[in-house]
Prior knowledge:
27% of the residues lie in helices and 12% in strands. It is α/β, with parallel strands linked by helices and 300 residues long. The termini are far apart.
Amino acid sequence: MTMHRSHRRLRAFTLVELLVVIAIIGTLVGLLLPAVQAAREAARRCSCLNNTTQLGLALHNHEFHTGHFPSGVINPDGPIRNEAVGQHVSWTVQVLPYMEQNNLFRMFDQQAGAYAEKNDTLRRANIAVLRCPSSPGPRGDQSGTAIGWSSYAGCHNSIEAPIDVGNDGLLFLNSRIRFDDILDGSSHTLLVSEHVFEDPDPNNGVSPVVLGWPSGTRATLRNTGRIEPLSNRRFTGLVEDEPAEKGLLTVGGFGSYHPGAAVVSMADGSTRAIGNSINPEVLHALGSRAGGELPNNTDW
C-alpha cells in the first residue's frame, strides 16, 4: 500500500507587504493622534470651566452672605508690591468657606498675614479647584519650597496699574464692592479668569518666587490691560529692563494655557471664553465696573 504525504505550502509576508502594513498603521496613528489630543484638551477645558464656575459661585455666595464681594487683598496700606512682606490676605482665603474648605479657613490666621510662620503649612495646601489641568504651574521656584499656587486671578483694574485702593475692577485693595456698584452691568464685568505664570529666567532657568493662593498680589489678582502670551518675558517680575521698584508693582494681565481663548467668570455668574484676539478696548471695558462702556459681546 502506497502512502502519500500531503504537503501544505506555508505562505509568509514578504518584506514589501510588511512595509506597506507598517506604513498604513503609521498613517492611521498620525491621523488619530491629533484627535486624541484634541479630546484630551477638550476634557481639560471642561474641567477648567467647572473650576472657574465654582470660583464664581464662591464669590457670589460671599456677596450673598456679607452684602459685598471679598476684598481683593487685605492690607493696611498700598500699593501692593509683589513680595512676601505685609498682610496680603487674598480674596481666595476669604472665600474658602464657600469652596468646601472650612477647616483651612478656620486654621488660617488672617491677622498674622499670608506669610506668617503659623500659616506656612497652610500656604502649601493644594486646592484642586484652583488648578487648571492645562496649566503647568510655576516652572521652578527660587525658594525651592513647595507652594500652593492658583491658575486663577480676580480682576483688580481695567488697565495695567498697581493693586491699590481706587482700582476700577471688582477685587482690589480693601475693596467691598456690592452689586449696586457694578454700573456697567454684571454681565459686562469680568470677575475671575485664568492667568499664565512668568517664564523662567534664561540665565538660570528659574522662575520668580510664586507667593501662592493666600497672597493678594499678582499671584491672585490681574487686570485687563492685555491678554498675556505664553512667552511672557517678565523675568523676576520685571518687564524687560524696567527698574526693580516698578517691577514689584507690575501686576500683568490674564492669559491661558488653552489654545485660542481664556476661560472667565463674569459678575453675573456666567462662564465663557475670551479670545486671545479680543479688541483691546473691549477687554479694558470688561475690566471696569463703572466705566460707562457698552462692550459688544460679538467682539469677544
